[in-house]
Amino acid sequence: MPSTEWSYDAATSRSLRLLSHLPVAAFGGVFLPAAGASVAFVLADPGVLRSPFVLLVALLALVGGPTSLLYLWPMLADPDQRPTRSAFSGTDRSLFTARSVVAAAVAGALAVVALVAVGAPFEAVYGLVVGCVFSPILVAVATTTGQLDDGELTINRREVPLHRLTGVRSIRVRGVVVLWLFYAPRSGLFVPRAAAVPADAGVGAIRGALEAGIEADPELEPPDRAVQAVGVVMGALFLAFGAAAYVALDEPAVGLYVAAVAGGMGAFLCLLGIRGV
């Protein structure tokens, strides 16, 4: 069986690289307009620089914490610790470059200003900014590295139990093939369930290994009834605690948070108990 290895991440995919820059765009969309408004306000009324609040901010910027000049100056003054230009030159397929960071920040600022100018609701702008901040989660989910060697398939450093596969589905999105793997019951919680493979990375060989595993007849062990019972009981207790907290707590937001955390844990334990580990 031919060997192959692949890597689908922000360094090799333009789409993932764009998603990786969305947090920079979000921060630029918030801080650049705020900085511009602050500069305009100071130019209109220079006397504001003598206010206690501005003096406090200046003091904190000088000596106020790990990002203040007092903490950063030793690093900037030391040639061995000082960031070099080559670190941001974009060599070796680096994810962020000075140009890409500036472009993302400016684009985010222009987008936020444009939305505010056309009268977009605050909730929409806020949701867009928050969504951009959490976009690296999508990048982490889509990032896949894998290797097929001597009939053994590894995805994200986890070996795929080919003999327990029961099915595989795939869909091609532009130059990427997304694979969904299905296993026999009680194959484990952390086995690879999905993988994104570049279309030119030997998809045929990977599918061949998966289909060969599907043809095998896995041995199905009976579930441990005691473990199942404990899982269901513990899950029911967590669900009951979440429901009671939601009803008993006076603050709705706190009650909803506790109910969501406890209910999520309870549902997870119930699922484990029903399906078996």
Word description of this protein:
Keywords: Membrane, Transmembrane, Transmembrane helix. By secondary structure, the protein is an alpha+beta fold. Helix content is 55%, strand content 14%. The protein has three domains: 15-132, no CATH class; 143-215, no CATH class; 225-275. It has helices spanning 14-20, 22-44, 52-63, 69-77, 98-117, 122-133, 136-142, 203-215, 225-248, 252-275; strands at residues 4-8, 144-149, 152-155, 158-159, 165-173, 176-183, 194-198. A hairpin with a 2-residue loop joins strand 2 and strand 3 (152-155). Helix 1 runs antiparallel to helix 7 (136-142) and helix 2 (22-44) packs across helix 6. The radius of gyration is 26 Å and the shape is extended.
Outline the secondary-structure elements:
Elements lengths: L3 E5 L5 H7 L1 H23 L7 H12 L5 H9 L20 H20 L4 H12 L2 H7 L1 E6 L2 E4 L2 E2 L5 E9 L2 E8 L10 E5 L4 H13 L9 H24 L3 H24 L2
Antiparallel strand pairs: 1-2, 2-3, 3-4, 5-6, 6-7
Helix pairs in contact: 1-7, 2-5, 2-6, 9-10
Short structural description:
With 277 residues, this protein is of the alpha+beta class.
